[in-house]
Write a structure and sequence with these properties.
Layout (H helix, E strand, L loop, with lengths): L1 E6 L4 H11 L4 E7 L21 E2 L2 H8 L3 E4 L3 H13 L3 E4 L6 H14 L2 E4 L5 H14 L4 E8 L9 H14 L19 E3 L3 E7 L5 E9 L2 E9 L6 H11 L4 E4 L2 H4 L2
Parallel strand pairs: 1-2, 1-4, 2-3, 4-5, 5-6, 6-12, 7-9
Antiparallel strand pairs: 7-10, 8-9, 10-11
Helix pairs in contact: 3-4, 5-6
């Protein structure tokens, strides 16, 4: 049995992870951390029975007492790097879906995980369909290098653009090589209306509205044609197969794996 602690357990993604771990035969939930709702039993959070596990606010204390194998983190950009380092220093393997970390923070985490010989999985998106979308986009960019990305999320998401959009832009830029798109003399009548500009002129547009979950469309333009590759997460359940896959695989890793595609397409 893989012993799991969930950080950010009070949030919407955290509740889905609680339910998924509870219903998975080879895992056992041993702790839950969130500064919101301290003292509440975690079972009713996701509509389940009382489990005898309550929300606690101190991650380090929970890791010491519960002795988990894996910490699943869906917290906030300002907390996630510290949580990962706390887990690694406690001998616990992190599986992380929180986005918004800086390149410096990621490098520090890579070095720590390697020095401790512990696995760590960080994924901008755990939906397997989204990972396929990114892979297909990178392939298409070799032939249709003019690209714009539109990502759409619920209006409570803290960071923009999404980690998935940034990762997609990275893959597209690598696939198409030295290429610059866009009209140099273009004028924005409203500042920012053309979205954020990534390497090579790739434009990223972020939409935030209630009713959305997580969606992304990658639009390619070519001579007399366009190609759209789109993925939609209709519910947060879509992320759970990827999370559970990462929990199992991180037990056998050393160092950081960034992106679920590196577990799917080895």
């Amino acid at each position: 049995m893989i012993r799991v602690v969930v950080a950010g357990a009070y949030g919407r993604m955290g509740r889905e992870v609680l339910k998924a771990v509870y219903k998975t035969e080879d895992m056992i939930l041993v702790g839950a951390v969130d500064v919101r709702g301290e003292g509440q039993d975690v079972g009713p959070l996701w509509g389940g029975p009382e489990m005898g596990i309550t929300l606690e606010g101190d991650l380090e204390k929970v890791l010491a007492e519960a002795r988990p194998d894996v910490m699943v983190d869906f917290t906030t950009p300002d907390a996630v790097a510290g949580n990962i380092k706390t887990a690694l220093k406690s001998g616990v393997r992190p599986v992380v879906g929180t986005t918004g970390m800086s390149s410096g923070e990621l490098e520090e985490i890579r070095n720590l995980a390697e020095s401790l010989k512990l696995g760590c999985v960080i994924a901008p998106n755990f939906a397997i369909g989204a990972v396929l979308m990114m892979r297909f986009a990178a392939e298409a960019a070799r032939y249709l290098p003019h690209v714009e990305i539109i990502e759409l999320h619920h209006d409570q998401k803290l960071d923009a653009p999404s980690g998935t959009a940034i990762k997609t832009a990275e893959l597209v830029a690598a696939a198409r090589g030295d290429f610059q798109q866009g009209l140099p003399t273009e004028i924005e009548k409203i500042p920012g209306v053309r979205g954020g500009s990534y390497e090579g002129g790739i434009r990223i547009h972020s939409v935030r509205l209630p009713g959305l979950v997580a969606h992304q469309e990658v639009i390619f333009g070519g001579l007399g044609q366009t190609l759209s590759i789109r993925h939609d997460s209709i519910s947060r359940e879509s992320f759970m197969p990827g999370v559970l896959l990462a929990v199992r695989r991180v037990m056998h890793l050393e160092g950081v794996v960034y992106g679920l595609e590196n577990l799917l397409f080895e």
